[in-house]
Sequence to fold (145 residues):
Amino acid sequence: MKNLILLLLIVPLAFTSCNIGPEPINYGSDACHYCSMTIVDKQHAAEFVTQRGKAFKFDSIECMMNSVKDTDSTEIALFLANGFDTPGKLIDGTKATYLISKNIPSPMGEFLSAFENREAAGLVQSEQNGALFSWQDLKERFEIQ
Fold:
């Protein structure tokens, strides 16, 4: 009987403990996993989530990319970035279009911003100059396999 009760308690826990999904960023209190700065910028923050459901938060996309260099990328289930034009909203980093523009500072000085679609990125690029990058381009720029 004790085994049955124990089993009934453990089984639901097993199904909920590895939830793979974004974790909200607590702006002003969460610290960047890479550089330890407090995350305050809602346009440039980023996050990755491992296959086991652990979220790592970053104050900038460049901190996330630098952290990925030190991580087995096959262990990462989700790459997320805040949309520049949708502050505070995490978007799929692998499908985003990235803009590097000297006219848009980011927390760690790479001038790197993410957009959910290429059209929005192109509109900001036409106003702020810079170059557009895909996820693959960005990985190459940061020398990530």
